[in-house]
């Protein structure tokens, strides 16, 4: 079985692959980690017998038993709190929060506790948990099934924030997250669970199966946290992006025939600053995209970093494309979503067209 | 501290984790004989002004009024007039007709989502009838019965469900997340149990101001695991707040049975005992018992005797929502075997029994209600269905974030409108 270590380019040519959608890839990663590490336990609302409302844990309770994979009371505070306690014992809990929009009752346990145990006990206690949670909109979920709260977590010291954009990465990153000794929040872009949505909501969506990044290597492999992925190389501008928006950015650049370099950040904290600098220094122009609200979003951090570190290479101000600073509206979901038009305008502006 | 390995190693017994398991899974034969169903009418009814502890025995009992003979029994019989009973029957039947039609509408692509309350109609309709129309209710997403009992127009409900240009909530909320200040119906949240401390706070405010209105909140049994539930009860107990908490124990929280909220250990009503407030456990499929319990609690609150926790013991007869298929996790037989029957059927049979109703009248009423729902649906469809262009103007998306629009939202509104013109040039 191939193992990837230390490098940003994952090459697993020797491992046989299987086409998977993102849910299957996540399920596979969980299966492998339950198998490899008897300290891994999975819990959350409806994750046990039923296998999760998105089916990410389907079949795992059957295979590993009820004390490794189990349902919980509806209490996000309880779920994350007991994960802290289990971590203190030496387990490696992988709690699921059914929707990122429902993580807020658990924030005290995550922010004041999990994120600070190591620091406040000088390393005596750690919280080696991975909180998995679906996030993002585009499914007509209204304001409580659509949010992208990643910046709340990147703002907290002591939590790693990981966001995959392909089945291949979802598996390798989730395995790394579970193996990591620090608390990790693992946001799953639910809009692309079943296919690489490109932002054209009025056109039929493709399933993952024909996408090259849906060819997922069998067995164990990990993708290191803190390493970005170059989706495509280019000279005209750098696009810093993650999650669902990777595919939207790709589609827009393809359609406009822009020679963009698209960097899928994969991990927001710790950030692959080298990859960011290298690309922006080469292209001199930078577009930051996220679906989350704009004000104090992670794009603000990225744009500040680029300005601080690449200022003399910049030929235009950094552009940000984001969701609007409103709750996610139900009927006007597609007016809210930072789609091809918004991205296209920003690219034109950056290139001075 | 040494890490303990397998078996502990201290010559002490090995610990085991208990993970609850429901009695029946798909395909299992269902036998509900473990559920104790006491005879109707035998439960004592303490005075509304009693010490909270006097209700303790009722927290593990089951208040029932309608017996197998379809007659009303015992001290909890609210002795409602036949007109009132017929009105409650009508409202419950209307809720059911409405649910059936909206469910179909979702399946036909007219909206994104719907949630029925089939089998649980009494817990909202009968309870709403027991409250004053200006008592503030803090519902969960399964109390459409309150709006219907308060005479809220069906067309408005459907406009909201379709997120169309007639929707008073401007298409912002997920279907069925209603709000109506005029009908004393608090805006529904998607985040579970948040309404409970809010109801306590409303009740406290009413008491601060020397008002006479009380508050009532509803929550599913699964959601009582949230911290908000416990905060709400603590505050209510501390300030003796005039609030009624309704826990609708429909046995299931999506795929998780009530054991995951603690039902293997005690009843939900018994939570009241620990907080020192009044508690009642009622047959939630018995509209007369629900009415009586809610009325008892409301009167108690109005006399400044404090909060009551009511557990409505009922059954979620269908899926959690249009996104759920319960055949994947529970036995289909449960619905048929449910020992407390169906609330509409029970009230209908009672009215027939006392000579105030007939099957023919029921049939005629059902037909009439189906027609009125159909007519309301047609009216609402004139305002559009989800995703077909008849929505609120783009600018409304940016309104109500704050009282006044700050510059950045104004800029973003311009952006949204520009994008619209690019996509659909007139
Ligand atoms: C804070 C929060 N966590 C999780 C959810 C997801 N969720 C929605 S409904 C539901 C089950 C609620 O069950 P219950 O309280 O028993 O009410 P019922 O649906 O049976 O009426 C869950 C887990 C949510 N909406 N909010």
Automatic annotation (TrEMBL), chain A:
Cofactor(s), names only, from the UniProt record: thiamine diphosphate
Molecular function as annotated in GO: branched-chain 2-oxo acid dehydrogenase activity
Top-level lineage group: Bacteria
SUPFAM superfamilies: Thiamin diphosphate-binding fold (THDP-binding), TK C-terminal domain-like
Pfam families recorded: Transket_pyr, Transketolase_C
Organism of derivation: Croceibacterium salegens
Entries under PANTHER family matching the protein: 2-OXOISOVALERATE DEHYDROGENASE SUBUNIT BETA, MITOCHONDRIAL (PTHR42980:SF1), 2-OXOISOVALERATE DEHYDROGENASE SUBUNIT BETA-RELATED (PTHR42980)
Occurrences of domain Transketolase-like pyrimidine-binding (ranges): 20-195
InterPro entries associated with the record: THDP-binding, Transketo_C/PFOR_II, Transketolase-like_Pyr-bd, Transketolase_C
Stated name of the protein: 3-methyl-2-oxobutanoate dehydrogenase (2-methylpropanoyl-transferring)
One of the protein's GO biological processes: response to nutrient
Record has Signal as a keyword: no
Keywords: Oxidoreductase
EC number of the protein: 1.2.4.4
Enzyme class: oxidoreductase
Automatic annotation (TrEMBL), chain B:
GO terms, molecular function: branched-chain 2-oxo acid dehydrogenase activity
Reactions that this protein is recorded to catalyse: N(6)-[(R)-lipoyl]-L-lysyl-[protein] + 3-methyl-2-oxobutanoate + H(+) = N(6)-[(R)-S(8)-2-methylpropanoyldihydrolipoyl]-L-lysyl-[protein] + CO2
EC numbers: 1.2.4.4
Residue intervals of the Dehydrogenase E1 component domain: 90-385
Origin superkingdom: Bacteria
UniProt KW keywords: Oxidoreductase, Thiamine pyrophosphate
Domain 2-oxoisovalerate dehydrogenase E1 alpha subunit N-terminal: 13-52
Enzyme class per UniProt: oxidoreductase
Keyword Repeat in record: no
Chain intervals for the UniProt region annotation (Disordered): 1-21
Coiled-coil region(s): none
Single GO biological process annotation from the record: branched-chain amino acid catabolic process
Gly residues composition bias: residue spans: 1-10
DNA-binding listed as a keyword: no
Cofactor list: thiamine diphosphate
InterPro entries named among the record's database cross-references: Alpha-ketoacid_DH_E1_comp, DH_E1, Oxoisoval_DH_suAlpha_N_dom, THDP-binding
Membership in a protein family: Belongs to the BCKDHA family.
Role description: The branched-chain alpha-keto dehydrogenase complex catalyzes the overall conversion of alpha-keto acids to acyl-CoA and CO(2). It contains multiple copies of three enzymatic components: branched-chain alpha-keto acid decarboxylase (E1), lipoamide acyltransferase (E2) and lipoamide dehydrogenase (E3).
Protein name according to UniProt: 2-oxoisovalerate dehydrogenase subunit alpha
Record organism: Croceibacterium salegens
């Amino acid at each position: 079985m191939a193992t990837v270590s230390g490098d940003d380019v994952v090459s697993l040519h020797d491992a046989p692959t299987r086409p998977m959608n993102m849910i299957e890839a996540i399920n596979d990663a969980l299966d492998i980690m339950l198998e490899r590490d008897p300290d891994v336990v999975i819990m959350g609302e409806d994750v046990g017998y039923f296998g999760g409302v998105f089916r990410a844990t389907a079949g795992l309770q059957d295979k590993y038993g009820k004390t490794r994979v189990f349902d919980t009371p509806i209490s996000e505070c309880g779920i994350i709190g007991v994960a802290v306690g289990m971590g203190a014992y030496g387990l490696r809990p992988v709690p699921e929060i059914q929707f990122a929009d429902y993580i807020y009752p658990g924030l005290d346990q995550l922010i004041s506790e999990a994120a600070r145990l190591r620091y406040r006990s000088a390393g005596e206690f750690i919280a080696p948990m991975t909180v998995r949670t679906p996030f993002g909109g585009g499914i007509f979920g209204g304001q409580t099934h659509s949010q992208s709260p990643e910046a709340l977590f990147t703002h907290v010291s002591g939590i790693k924030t990981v966001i995959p954009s392909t089945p291949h990465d979802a598996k390798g990153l989730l395995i790394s997250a579970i193996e990591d000794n620090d608390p990790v929040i693992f946001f799953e872009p639910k809009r692309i669970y079943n296919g690489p949505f490109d932002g054209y909501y009025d056109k039929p969506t493709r399933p993952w199966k024909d996408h090259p990044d849906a060819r997922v290597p069998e067995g164990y492999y990990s993708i290191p946290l803190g390493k970005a992925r170059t989706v495509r190389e280019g000279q005209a501008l750098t696009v810093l992006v993650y999650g669902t928006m990777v595919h939207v950015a790709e589609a827009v650049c393809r359609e406009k025939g822009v020679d963009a370099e698209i960097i899928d950040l994969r991990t927001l904290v710790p950030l692959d600053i080298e990859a960011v600098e290298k690309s922006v220094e080469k292209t001199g122009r930078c577009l930051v995209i996220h679906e989350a609200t704009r004000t104090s979003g992670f794009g603000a951090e990225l744009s500040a970093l680029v300005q601080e570190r690449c200022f003399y290479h910049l030929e235009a101000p950094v552009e940000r494309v984001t969701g609007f600073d409103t709750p996610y509206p139900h009927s006007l979901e597609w007016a809210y979503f930072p789609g091809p038009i918004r991205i296209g305008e920003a690219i034109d502006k950056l290139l001075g067209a | 501290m040494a890490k303990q390995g397998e078996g502990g190693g201290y010559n002490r017994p090995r610990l085991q984790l208990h993970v609850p398991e429901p009695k029946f899974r798909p395909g299992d034969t269902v036998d509900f004989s473990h559920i104790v169903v006491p005879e109707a009418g035998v439960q004592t009814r303490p005075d509304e002004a009693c010490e909270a502890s006097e209700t303790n025995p009722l927290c593990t009992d089951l208040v029932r009024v309608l017996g197998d003979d379809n007659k009303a029994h015992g001290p909890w019989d609210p002795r409602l007039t036949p007109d009132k009973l017929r009105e409650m029957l009508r409202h419950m039947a209307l809720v059911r007709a409405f649910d059936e039609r909206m469910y179909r509408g979702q399946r036909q692509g007219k909206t994104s989502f719907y949630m029925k309350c089939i089998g649980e109609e009494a817990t909202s309709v009968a309870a709403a009838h027991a409250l004053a129309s200006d008592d503030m209710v803090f519902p969960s997403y399964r109390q459409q019965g309150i709006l219907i009992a308060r005479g809220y127009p069906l067309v408005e409900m459907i406009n909201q469900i379709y997120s169309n240009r007639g929707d008073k909530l401007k298409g912002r909320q997920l279907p069925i997340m209603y709000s109506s200040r005029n009908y004393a119906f608090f805006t529904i949240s998607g985040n579970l149990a948040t309404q409970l401390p809010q109801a306590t706070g409303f009740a406290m405010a009413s008491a601060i101001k020397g008002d006479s209105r009380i508050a009532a909140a509803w929550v599913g049994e699964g959601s009582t695991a949230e911290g908000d539930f416990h905060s709400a009860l603590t505050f209510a107990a501390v300030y003796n707040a005039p609030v009624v908490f309704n826990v609708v124990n429909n046995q299931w929280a999506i795929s998780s049975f009530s054991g995951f909220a603690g039902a293997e250990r005690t009843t939900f009503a018994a939570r009241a005992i620990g907080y020192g407030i009044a508690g009642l456990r009622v047959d939630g499929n018995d509209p007369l018992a629900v009415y009586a319990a809610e009325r008892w609690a409301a009167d108690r609150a109005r006399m400044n005797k404090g909060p009551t926790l009511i557990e409505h013991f009922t059954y979620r007869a269908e899926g959690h929502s249009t996104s759920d298929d319960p055949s994947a996790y529970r036995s289909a037989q449960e619905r048929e075997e449910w020992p407390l029957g169906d609330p509409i059927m029970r009230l209908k049979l009672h009215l027939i029994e006392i000579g105030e109703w007939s099957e023919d009248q029921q049939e005629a009423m059902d037909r009439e209600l189906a027609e009125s729902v159909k007519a309301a649906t047609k009216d609402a469809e004139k305002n559009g269905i989800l995703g077909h262009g008849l929505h609120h103007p783009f600018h409304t998306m940016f309104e109500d974030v704050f009282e006044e629009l700050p510059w950045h939202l104004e800029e973003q509104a311009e952006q949204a409108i520009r994008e619209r013109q690019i996509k659909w040039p007139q």
